Write a sequence for this structure.
């Protein structure tokens, strides 16, 4: 696996950006040992600009982000220089405290639920351990299964009015 340095906004080393070829694709992985309390986005910095890799997520005491690109998408940016992390000021996942309004909000009264604001949506992450029933089965077509802090969650998006929505 190949590596490039990963820098924070202050220009100081913040981790490493690893990459490897997989057929016609290139998989990039930004790794940092620094824990963050807000959303941090990772970018690939190149001669021709920057390319968003995604949001860093907790992983084994640090943070990680993976993204896979078709090789021509990255070749167009020129020579790769480094990775960079940028804080958005938005909070990372936090314990749910009743942020969803209406009928759906009333049904979200269980321990272990996480939440965060993402754009115009309120994301709600419900624990989904192996062997357990799928949470809010009537909304399964709107669900996204995601690993957060090494645990499996089902994530739903809600509007400001408390209605479940499909994110694109």
């Amino acid at each position: 696996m190949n590596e490039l340095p990963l820098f924070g906004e202050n220009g100081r080393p913040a981790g490493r950006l690893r990459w490897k070829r997989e057929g016609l694709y290139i998989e990039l992985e930004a790794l940092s040992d620094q824990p963050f309390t807000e959303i941090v986005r990772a970018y690939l910095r190149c001669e021709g600009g920057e390319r968003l890799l995604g949001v860093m997520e907790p992983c084994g005491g640090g943070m990680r982000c993976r993204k896979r690109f078709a090789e021509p998408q990255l070749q167009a940016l020129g020579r790769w220089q480094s990775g960079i992390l940028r804080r958005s000021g938005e909070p990372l996942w936090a314990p749910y405290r009743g942020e969803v309004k209406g009928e759906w909000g009333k049904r979200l009264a269980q321990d272990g639920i996480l939440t965060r604001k993402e754009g115009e949506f309120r994301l709600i992450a419900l624990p989904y351990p192996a062997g357990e029933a799928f949470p809010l089965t009537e909304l399964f077509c709107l669900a996204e299964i995601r690993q957060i802090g090494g645990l499996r969650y089902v994530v739903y998006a809600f509007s400001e009015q408390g209605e479940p929505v499909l994110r694109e």
The chain has two domains: 2-91, 94-165. Residues 18 and 39 are 21 Å apart (CA to CA). The first strand starts at residue 2 and ends at 7. The chain is about 5% helix and 55% strand.
